[in-house]
Design a protein that fits this description.
Layout: H1 8-13, H2 15-24, H3 29-38, H4 40-61, E1 64-68, E2 72-78, E3 82-90, H5 100-109, E4 115-123, H6 128-137, E5 141-143, H7 146-155
Antiparallel strand pairs: 1-2, 1-5, 2-3, 3-4
Helix pairs in contact: 3-4
Length: 158
């Protein structure tokens, strides 16, 4: 398996897509029930293949990731061969970017000595989608990129 198996909740949300996936392999509901009962290892393989297909589709479309922690915000623009980043760090103990108050504080102190902002770019060491998946497993979430784009614009005006 390339990524990780979808959760039960994710499979339930994608039940129509999974049924279509099985149908594309000439497996109907009755055959699926027989597979699960008599050849569970084959059923497990089908779940894994479907999971990888879903992950691959999601990761192919991903352009931005965000990861918030109490003292840091990591913003990533995921391009074809490289990933660009904006990293925001507070130097003030007690500020928590996971709380609304922390984000309000950040908006008032963004360009002060109390906040460090770094930008960077890194070429992918291996497959792009595996690099993105690794960040997601570490807590990053898919994003529309609004915060990244706003900060990128501000940082490149000076």
């Amino acid at each position: 398996m390339k990524y990780k198996r979808l959760t039960k909740e994710q499979f339930e949300a994608l039940h129509v897509e999974f049924a279509n996936f099985l149908a594309s392999q000439s497996i109907d509901k009755k055959e699926w029930d027989v597979l699960k009962a008599q050849k569970p290892e084959v059923a497990e393989q089908e779940l894994d293949v479907f999971s990888d297909l879903i992950w691959e589709g999601v990761l192919d479309k991903a352009s931005y990731l965000e990861h918030f922690s109490p003292q840091h915000i990591f913003l990533f623009h995921c391009q074809e061969t490289s990933m660009h980043s904006i990293i925001i760090k507070t130097n003030v103990p007690g500020v928590d970017f996971l709380q609304k108050e922390g984000l309000t504080w950040l908006s008032q102190h963004l360009f002060t000595p109390e906040v460090d902002i770094h930008t960077g770019m890194k070429k992918y060491d291996g497959e792009r989608n595996l690099a993105l998946f690794e960040l997601i497993t570490q807590g990053a979430i898919l994003s529309e990129g609004q915060l990244y784009d706003q900060l990128y614009e501000i940082l490149n005006q000076s």
